[in-house]
Amino acid sequence: MGNCMVVEEKVVKVMGPDGKILEYTSPTTVQQVLSDSPGQLVCDYPSLLQQQQKFLPEVKLVGGRLYYLVPLLPSTPTSKQKVRFAVPETKNDKVAVKSGGVVRIKLVITMQKLEELLKKD
To answer: What superkingdom does the record give (predicted)?
Structure first.
């Protein structure tokens, strides 16, 4: 019996979030893998442990290694603060008065000014 040597091109293996392993031919870039599975990122095991540091699209994946497809985390929605005005604005920047004719406003004045206003009535 003779010695037998099989020359096999190393394959890039990428494990999806469902556990399914996808195989790509050896000179493969991250961009080629991501074109088949949008909304995900490619990383290897060490970067997976370091809070998902993703590979850039132009990085070449090494044959014979296992990479992971991880779904992108949804971006945290920035909470926008709602601002309410006491009196809603109109197109002409005039004060909108409801049919009751009463408008409620908030004033910040000193005690002396308040006393002066009350004396005038």
So the answer is: Eukaryota
Contacts (Cβ under 8 Å, ≥6 apart) of 23: 11, 12, 13, 14
Instruction: Give per-residue pLDDT as tens, 44-73.
Output: 876 665 665 677 788 888 888 888 888 877
Asked if residue 6 belongs to a domain, the reply is: no
What residues contact residue 49 under an 8 Å CB cut-off, 6+ apart? none
> What's the CATH code of the domain at 40?
3.10.20.30
109 in a domain, yes or no? Answer: no
- What is the DSSP track for 75-91? PPPPPPPP---SS---T
Q: Is residue 44 part of a domain?
A: yes
User: Whole-prediction pTM value?
Assistant: 0.50
Range of the domain at 37: 11-71
